[in-house]
Amino acid sequence: MDTSFPREDYLPTPSHKREPCPDAGTSLLPRDHLIWSIFNTIYMNFCCLGFVALAFSVKARDRKVAGDVEAAHHFSSKARCYNGLATAGSVVLPLLLVALVITGVIHLSKLAQESVGFFTYQFGGSDEDK
After folding, report:
1. What is the average pLDDT score of the chain?
2. Predicted local distance difference test score (pLDDT) of residue 107
3. Residue 13 φ/ψ, nearest 5 degrees
4. 3-state DSSP: the chain helix, strand, coil percent, rounded to 5?
5. Using one digit for the tens of pLDDT, what is the confidence trace for 90-113?
6. pLDDT digits (tens, 9 = 90+) for 8-62
7. What is the span of the domain harbouring residue 47?
8. Cα separation, 66 vs 94, whole angstroms
9. How far is CA 39 from the centre of its chain?
10. Which of 11, 71, 76, 93 is the most buried (most CB within 10 A)?
11. Can you tell me the distance from the alpha carbon of 82 to that of 53, in angstroms, rounded to the nearest whole number?
């Protein structure tokens, strides 16, 4: 038994560049949105949507590497959707909360001014005589 390394029958295969599919035409490989998903998972994980987006991004990248462009497009679309929802939820909800607090403060200040006006009302002498 020959245990020498490297063996003579083993020839390294030349690296192949990925050629575009002839039926794909001008179709580009889909984006996997992995960086956006990682950002949403770490910083703005609203209702775990960032984690779901990360899972679909990884699936899209795996399918793209495997050469399954159709499945990669499908998973990429889902990852983009969940990333958009996570980003919108993490940006819109705090802005909505701030807007509600500001309008509440404005409303309470108007009520306080009206109550001060009510308690400082002075009855005139002509109103009591009648």
Report:
1. 80
2. 94
3. -80, 140
4. 65, 0, 35
5. 888 889 999 999 999 999 998 888
6. 555 555 555 555 555 544 468 889 899 999 999 898 777 889 999 999 999 999 9
7. 34-63+73-125
8. 40
9. 8
10. 76
11. 5
In a domain? residue 45 = yes
Residue 83 host element (H or E) = helix 69-119
In a domain, residue 58? The reply is yes
Residue 46 near residue 86 (C-beta atoms within 8 A): yes
Question: Which residue, chain included where needed, has tokens 């956006």?
Answer: 36
d(CA 90, CA 97): 11
Whether 44 is covered by a domain: the verdict is yes
54 domain residue, yes or no? yes
**What is the spatial distance between Cα 52 and Cα 20, in angstroms, rounded to a whole number?**
30
Helix (H) or strand (E) holding 38: helix 34-42
Q: CB within 8 A of 61, min separation 6: which ones?
A: 32, 34, 72
pLDDT at 115: 81
